Known about the structure:
Elements: E1 26-28, E2 39-49, E3 56-66, E4 70-72, H1 74-82, H2 91-106, E5 110-120, E6 123-130
Antiparallel strand pairs: 1-4, 2-3, 3-5, 5-6
Amino acid sequence: MSTTKRNTINYKTFDPLSVKTDMIEAIEYEFKGQRDIEITINQPEFTSVCPMTGLPDFGNITIKYIPNNKIIELKTFKFYLLQYRNVGIFYEHVVNHILNDLVKVISPKQMEITGNFTARGGITTSVQAKY
Length: 131
Protein backbone atom coordinates (compact mmCIF):
# COMPACT_ATOMS: atom_id res chain seq x y z
CA MET A 1 0.00 0.00 0.00
CA SER A 2 1.41 3.40 -0.98
CA THR A 3 0.64 6.75 0.51
CA THR A 4 0.63 9.92 -1.54
CA LYS A 5 2.44 12.91 -0.12
CA ARG A 6 1.26 16.38 -0.97
CA ASN A 7 4.01 18.20 -2.88
CA THR A 8 5.01 21.41 -1.18
CA ILE A 9 7.97 23.70 -1.51
CA ASN A 10 9.89 24.49 1.64
CA TYR A 11 9.79 28.24 1.12
CA LYS A 12 9.32 30.99 3.68
CA THR A 13 6.59 33.46 2.82
CA PHE A 14 5.81 36.70 4.60
CA ASP A 15 2.49 37.86 6.00
CA PRO A 16 0.60 40.59 4.05
CA LEU A 17 0.75 42.77 7.17
CA SER A 18 4.54 42.95 6.70
CA VAL A 19 4.00 45.32 3.74
CA LYS A 20 4.61 48.89 4.92
CA THR A 21 2.90 51.96 3.47
CA ASP A 22 5.14 54.56 5.10
CA MET A 23 7.59 54.32 2.20
CA ILE A 24 5.04 55.69 -0.31
CA GLU A 25 5.55 59.41 -0.76
CA ALA A 26 2.67 61.66 -1.72
CA ILE A 27 3.24 64.80 -3.80
CA GLU A 28 0.94 67.84 -3.78
CA TYR A 29 -1.22 67.94 -6.90
CA GLU A 30 -0.46 71.40 -8.27
CA PHE A 31 -3.73 71.73 -10.20
CA LYS A 32 -6.18 70.71 -7.46
CA GLY A 33 -9.43 72.60 -7.71
CA GLN A 34 -8.74 73.57 -11.35
CA ARG A 35 -9.57 70.32 -13.11
CA ASP A 36 -9.80 66.59 -12.64
CA ILE A 37 -7.32 64.34 -14.37
CA GLU A 38 -7.12 60.58 -14.54
CA ILE A 39 -3.74 59.05 -13.81
CA THR A 40 -2.93 55.50 -14.89
CA ILE A 41 0.01 53.59 -13.44
CA ASN A 42 0.90 50.18 -14.85
CA GLN A 43 3.26 47.65 -13.23
CA PRO A 44 3.62 44.68 -15.64
CA GLU A 45 6.14 42.83 -13.45
CA PHE A 46 4.26 42.39 -10.18
CA THR A 47 5.14 39.31 -8.16
CA SER A 48 3.82 37.73 -5.00
CA VAL A 49 3.63 34.16 -3.70
CA CYS A 50 0.77 31.67 -3.57
CA PRO A 51 -0.01 31.18 0.13
CA MET A 52 -1.02 27.55 -0.50
CA THR A 53 2.03 26.31 -2.41
CA GLY A 54 4.77 28.90 -2.05
CA LEU A 55 5.01 29.11 -5.85
CA PRO A 56 5.49 32.54 -7.42
CA ASP A 57 2.54 34.44 -8.87
CA PHE A 58 3.04 36.98 -11.65
CA GLY A 59 0.73 39.73 -12.73
CA ASN A 60 0.11 43.14 -14.20
CA ILE A 61 -1.19 45.71 -11.71
CA THR A 62 -2.94 48.79 -13.10
CA ILE A 63 -3.91 51.75 -10.93
CA LYS A 64 -6.31 54.39 -12.29
CA TYR A 65 -7.19 57.32 -10.10
CA ILE A 66 -8.45 60.87 -9.97
CA PRO A 67 -6.35 62.79 -7.44
CA ASN A 68 -7.82 65.03 -4.82
CA ASN A 69 -4.89 66.90 -3.23
CA LYS A 70 -2.02 64.44 -3.66
CA ILE A 71 -0.46 62.20 -6.30
CA ILE A 72 1.71 59.09 -5.92
CA GLU A 73 5.48 59.48 -6.23
CA LEU A 74 6.37 56.61 -8.56
CA LYS A 75 9.81 55.56 -7.31
CA THR A 76 8.57 55.05 -3.77
CA PHE A 77 5.49 53.27 -5.09
CA LYS A 78 7.73 50.86 -7.01
CA PHE A 79 9.57 50.01 -3.79
CA TYR A 80 6.24 49.54 -2.02
CA LEU A 81 5.12 47.00 -4.64
CA LEU A 82 8.45 45.14 -4.42
CA GLN A 83 7.59 44.26 -0.81
CA TYR A 84 4.98 41.81 -2.13
CA ARG A 85 7.65 39.66 -3.81
CA ASN A 86 7.77 37.16 -0.92
CA VAL A 87 4.31 37.77 0.54
CA GLY A 88 1.91 34.83 0.57
CA ILE A 89 -1.35 36.37 -0.60
CA PHE A 90 -4.28 35.48 -2.85
CA TYR A 91 -4.92 37.62 -5.96
CA GLU A 92 -8.24 38.84 -4.62
CA HIS A 93 -6.60 40.04 -1.43
CA VAL A 94 -3.54 41.74 -2.89
CA VAL A 95 -5.66 44.03 -5.08
CA ASN A 96 -7.70 45.09 -2.04
CA HIS A 97 -4.57 45.60 0.09
CA ILE A 98 -3.02 47.89 -2.53
CA LEU A 99 -6.27 49.86 -2.86
CA ASN A 100 -6.62 50.31 0.91
CA ASP A 101 -2.98 51.40 1.25
CA LEU A 102 -3.12 53.95 -1.57
CA VAL A 103 -6.42 55.42 -0.39
CA LYS A 104 -4.89 55.82 3.07
CA VAL A 105 -1.81 57.62 1.68
CA ILE A 106 -3.29 59.97 -0.97
CA SER A 107 -7.09 60.11 -0.34
CA PRO A 108 -8.03 60.25 -4.04
CA LYS A 109 -11.44 61.28 -5.40
CA GLN A 110 -11.68 57.91 -7.15
CA MET A 111 -9.40 54.91 -7.55
CA GLU A 112 -9.54 51.57 -9.32
CA ILE A 113 -6.96 48.79 -9.02
CA THR A 114 -6.91 45.93 -11.51
CA GLY A 115 -4.72 42.85 -11.25
CA ASN A 116 -4.38 40.64 -14.34
CA PHE A 117 -2.52 37.51 -13.29
CA THR A 118 -0.79 35.00 -15.53
CA ALA A 119 -2.14 31.53 -16.07
CA ARG A 120 -1.82 28.91 -13.39
CA GLY A 121 -3.07 25.47 -14.31
CA GLY A 122 -4.57 26.92 -17.47
CA ILE A 123 -6.67 29.52 -15.62
CA THR A 124 -6.06 33.27 -15.80
CA THR A 125 -7.52 35.59 -13.20
CA SER A 126 -8.43 39.28 -13.32
CA VAL A 127 -9.41 41.09 -10.12
CA GLN A 128 -10.68 44.66 -9.81
CA ALA A 129 -11.41 46.76 -6.73
CA LYS A 130 -12.81 50.32 -6.68
CA TYR A 131 -12.93 53.23 -4.29
